[in-house]
Amino acid sequence: MLVSAKEMLEKARDGKYAVGQFNINNLEWTKSILQVAEEMKSPVILGVSEGAGKYMTGFKTVAAMVKAMDEEMKISVPVALHLDHGTYEGCYKCIKAGFTSIMFDGSHYPIEENIAKTCELVKISNAMGLSIEAEVGSIGGEEDGVIGMGECADPNECKQVADLGVTMLAAGIGNIHGKYPANWKGLSFETLAAIKEKVGDMPLVLHGGTGIPAEMIKKAISLGVAKINVNTECQLSFQEATRKYIEAGKDLEGKGFDPRKLLAPGAEAIKQTVREKIELFGSANKA
Ligand code: 13P
Predict the structure, then answer these.
(1) Which ligand 1 atom sits closest to the C-alpha of 206?
(2) 251 an active-site residue?
């Protein structure tokens, strides 16, 4: 069931769990994530970066594929199709393509410009019944060409942006896209608590979900995080399982070259990662 992310995130905030956003790259990714969400009776958010959208030939293709899969697979759990780290133009494209949720990442603009653009997109999203995520501070590392210095968000700026009426707010708290370096200092719970204090009930989003230890995830949820984004970890699971299949020479046996066989271990590995995350985030049986 394709829906905006608003209701699922409000329920998660009130129930003290988080909904996973799993980024998609192609049909296998989407199918695996939807299968597990349905199996575990969990709400889910499918994240699409601008790079992944381009790879899949455009947001219209993505929206059509997700809508059709949701129907053909008879998915009964709430699913939001969400633009990840969207540009201003990307947001308009996704709204037009039929996404149910957008993220406008204006974190690299001066705060006044971030506020002005977010405000405009909030009005449109509200009018169309879509959910909208904004970002303050920045997520460190790189994701599909989006590079951040990883500065912690200013709680006062978070309040200014939250007051615009966004559905959810991503705030930099020392989190990083991709693998965490060995010398990573961990999440800044001080910053998170200060933001929570300012923004009250606003569901908060934790980006860079790959590799954050379980205790930190649980603490973040207890401090108001209601959505956690995972991308790299599914890619790594897929890569490892595919490598094993090929290194074991399975692609050379019988019809092992058939793409449905070749991609099956990777797809199964994505499913296992998604299962573990849904378990950890506490969203199983909350659909
Ligand atoms: P990871 O790739 O580190 O899991 O981050 C995902 C993310 O935050 C998507 O916006």
Answers:
(1) 8
(2) no
